[in-house]
């Protein structure tokens, strides 16, 4: 894959099995320049590939229009240390939340964005990446190993903590819910939104409901318009919004749809600094104020 993308760049879509080993290989292929992947429906030897035919065709059509300049070969690396502020008490509930949406090209975008965020950030980070089960756990583990904020695949009912990144697990919508003076993760398998589960819109709307003006929505590269309506909800609740620009996005579908609700449209390598600046500007009263 690295040779193909360095010598004769072309859009590539992987067809991968639902196994830990294949998930890791798929993540490496995305590092080396693959645009997207589709999971085989029934393991390494799948005799029913017709069940994902429409999904595969959609991915191929999207890949054909991909911005290949945004997918150079990326060797996995640890980010340089981020500037450190005085650390808050471990396990403290956040007074602000950053919700991030990503799809096609998202794993690479997240690998560039998240390690750049300072630690501590002063907010929780909640991420929806359109991706099947098992692959999200592998992605979370890879992101966690890149430095910066700690990253994990979210678990139903766990408390939301400051300076931690929660990645929605494949096949589950992720929301935040407030009760008993605490904010927790809520996972469910309600119907797909925009044809995907997890979807960003349910997360963004829940962040708007719980954090209000202390919320920030970020919509990164991806096909479709997931995240746009959720970003509208965050803005209407008094929060802020960022969309990735066309030049740095692999597919400028989701960020384009969200741009009308965004305060700023930025290249990927400027978004981490903008997140930090916005978090510093968000009001600081407790949850529900």
Mean pLDDT: 86
Name the helix and strand elements from N-terminus to C-terminus, one letter apiece. Answer: HEHEHEHEHEEEEHEHEHEH
Low-pLDDT parts are 78-90
What is the CATH level 1 assignment of the largest domain?
A: Alpha Beta
The strand line-up of the biggest sheet is: 5-6-4-3-9-10-11
Total of domains: 2
Please state the overall shape, judged from the principal axes of the Cα atoms: globular
Helix content: 25-40%
CATH superfamily of the largest domain: Methylesterase CheB, C-terminal domain
CATH topology of the largest domain, which one? Rossmann fold
How would a textbook summarize the main sheet? 7 strands, parallel
Number of beta strands: 11
What is the architecture of the largest domain at the second tier of CATH? Answer: 3-Layer(aba) Sandwich
Label the structural class: alpha/beta
Helix tally equals: 9
């Amino acid at each position: 894959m690295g040779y193909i993308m360095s010598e004769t760049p072309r859009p590539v879509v992987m067809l991968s099995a639902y196994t830990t080993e294949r998930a890791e290989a798929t993540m490496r292929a995305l590092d080396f320049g693959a645009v997207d992947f589709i999971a085989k429906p029934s393991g390494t030897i799948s005799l029913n590939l017709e069940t994902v035919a429409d999904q595969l065709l959609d991915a191929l059509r999207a890949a054909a229009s991909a911005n290949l300049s945004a997918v150079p070969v990326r060797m996995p690396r640890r980010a340089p240390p981020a500037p450190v502020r005085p650390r808050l008490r471990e396990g403290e509930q956040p007074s602000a939340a950053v919700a991030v949406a990503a799809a096609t090209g998202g794993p690479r975008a997240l690998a560039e964005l998240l390690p750049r965020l300072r630690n501590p950030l002063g907010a929780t980070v909640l991420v929806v990446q359109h991706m099947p089960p098992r692959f999200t756990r592998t992605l979370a583990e890879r992101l966690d190993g890149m430095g910066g904020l700690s990253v994990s695949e979210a678990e139903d009912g766990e408390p939301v903590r400051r300076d931690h990144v929660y990645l929605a697990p494949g096949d589950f919508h992720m929301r935040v819910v407030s009760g008993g003076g605490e904010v927790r993760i809520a996972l469910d398998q309600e119907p797909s939104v925009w044809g995907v589960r997890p979807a960003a819109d349910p997360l963004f709307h829940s962040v708007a409901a719980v954090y209000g003006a202390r919320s920030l929505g970020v919509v990164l590269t991806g096909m479709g318009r997931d995240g746009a309506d959720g970003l509208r909800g965050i803005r209407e609740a008094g929060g802020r919004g960022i969309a990735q620009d066309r030049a740095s996005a692999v597919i400028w579908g989701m960020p384009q749809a969200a741009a009308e609700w965004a305060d700023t449209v930025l290249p990927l390598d400027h978004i981490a600094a903008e997140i930090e600046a916005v978090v510093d500007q968000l009001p600081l009263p407790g949850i529900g104020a």
